[in-house]
Design brief:
Blueprint lengths: L2 H17 L5 H17 L10 H12 L4 H16 L3
Length: about 90
């Protein structure tokens, strides 16, 4: 997995999150926390833990109907992490 590619996907995800005003505060905080934890582990050192994949996938399913662009961005991050074996 190219770290730059994952960072780009996560940046897109943050843009979609910022543009989606109808997301409740708890869900927004949950997603922001997961993204922060992944960011903290990118680069030298530990890879992001696989425990984030189920959380991200569950959020993607939740956003599917109301926020399809956000759901797609989430799935791309999940896919990139999965392909990296994380």
């Amino acid at each position: 997995m190219a770290e730059d590619n994952l960072r780009e996907l996560m940046s897109r995800l943050r843009q979609h999150l910022a543009a989606s005003e109808s997301i409740d505060d708890a869900t927004r905080a949950n997603l922001s926390q997961v993204l922060h934890e992944i960011d903290a582990r990118l680069g030298p050192g530990e890879p992001p833990p696989a425990t984030h994949l189920p959380r991200l996938e569950a959020l993607a399913v939740r956003f599917e109907a109301g926020h399809p662009a956000l759901a797609e961005a989430l799935r791309e991050v999940v896919d990139a992490l999965g392909k990296a074996g994380l």
